[in-house]
Write a structure and sequence with these properties.
Layout lengths: L38 H11 L12 H17 L2 E2 L7 E4 L1 E6 L4 E4 L2 E3 L5 E5 L8 E7 L8 H4 L3 E5 L21 E5 L2 H11 L3 E4 L8 E5 L1 H8 L11 E8 L2 E5 L2 E8 L10 E7 L5 E7 H15 L10 H5 L5 H7 L4 E4 L3 H20 L7 E7 L7 H8 L8 E7 L17 E5 L6 H12 L6 E3 L17 H5 L5 E5 L18 H20 L20
Parallel strand pairs: 7-8, 8-9, 9-11, 15-18, 15-19, 19-22, 20-21
Antiparallel strand pairs: 1-14, 2-14, 3-10, 3-13, 4-5, 4-12, 6-11, 7-12, 14-18, 16-17, 20-22
Amino acid sequence: MLLAPAAGCAQSAPAHTPAHASELPLELAPRPTTAAVTDADLMTRLYVFADDSMLGREAGTEGNLRATAYIARELERLGVRPAGDDGSYFQTVPFLRRFVSERGGISVDGAPVALWTDVVPTGGTHSVDGAQVIFGGVQGEPLAITAEQAAGRVVLLASRGAGYASPAVGPGSPLAGAAGVALEVSDETLARTASAQRRPRIVPQRKPGPAPLSLHVSARAARRLLGRAPAGAPPGFVGRRIAGTLFYENEPAPARNVVGIIPGTDSALRGTYVALGAHNDHVGVASAAVDHDSLRAVNREAWRLQGAFAGLPELPPERRAAIRVNVDSLRRLRPARPDSIHNGADDDGSGSMALLEIAEALAHGPHKPRRSVLFVWHTGEEKGLLGARAFTDNPSVPRDSIVAQINIDMIGRGQAEDVQGGGPGYVGIVGARRLSSELGELVEAVNRARRDPLRLDYRLDANGHPENIYCRSDHYEYARFGIPVAFFFTGLHGDYHQVTDEPQYIDYANYGRITRFIHDLTLRLAGLDHRPAVDGPRPEPGAACSQ
């Protein structure tokens, strides 16, 4: 895999729509969309939404504001009624931009330990001012000291030679009462950590609980902190005291859900809603650029060797490291393309733009919903379903007026090389029968009635499935209140959460087919004269989710 030092970039290519995804252009000139749900409309929208200019759409960043502004402009153009805060399309979800304060620092015996070159904070809240260092053993091995010895001290763990292993510091851990935990790491690892930690992080706006300050330290700093080389030190050896501390500063970085309503035509049903959801955020910009084509070649081969299905054992690191790419062959096709932007075309550009296509079809197409349709583009899914939780905790319509929620997260792939059993018509479905067997039967009935029925795959919906997909996307925030949900998903793939998740790799024929099915399912739900019966176990809203 070739590493490249430059920022992400794009190359232009002729705007055409050939049959194979590998031939699709890197850029596409936008075209007017129509009232019908078409593959071409989805392609136009997705090339806009997953463009490099959106900077990976991370919640709380400028890129996500641009992306949500695009959705809102389209809703206004389509005449969809705003249903956010104060008559807008937006519901604000508070986040913070957190960064290490340059005003902080620590010293040992009156001499400073260099921030970023010898010590890098990686998390935690405790102050280490006045704390004494104690040697706790070697990373990756059982802690060699007691909780009483660790309490109030900075526990230094020696390097195990390659990589590092961050120990658990939560409640119940013998390190929970420590002032800090310092991991000795290689200079290379420390440099990578410093590069990542110097960039602000977007975090939820909530007061963090008490936790030991986590530090990565160089071998030089480890010797200074302990007063001797860690190698060979006896467990419990007491080192020097630290003066000063390292701490974080915060700036507001609000994110936003986008919310709109298409009112129903039936006055008796208009006060109830079918909710459609997708998440508008992704994971932002990588800390370093890589060569796009060679990374994709490695990831595709690793995914093939793993077995091309979520939940299979991950490829062992040594097998991944053994993968070799013929870079010369790649270069004969095109020059190196350094890339650092996580475009999130499938995750979840595909779901977000499917919602816009369905909104346009319901607003301007021949078939109107009898019941109202609530569209929510949730933010912060990638940070723990936070936008969906914010909306369901404070919905802009009465919560009990939502009769069902359809969630769309990653419906742009599902090819045979992406998932076992994939190919034309493939889509995974999760949760449709968990709360309402009637909703599950309705999904099947709508599919059977189509000229081109989909192949519905329920494998990821199995109880106890290791991927725990039912709990990992926004639909669960509705299900926790007893609202029946159905989640559509074409599966994880080799480009998942990689800079290679770009619009040119989407299977637009299957993407369009799934979107048209969800459009039809929405109309069928909106036309029911009753709400789908809830006959499954209702979770407690505050309880942890378990699939």
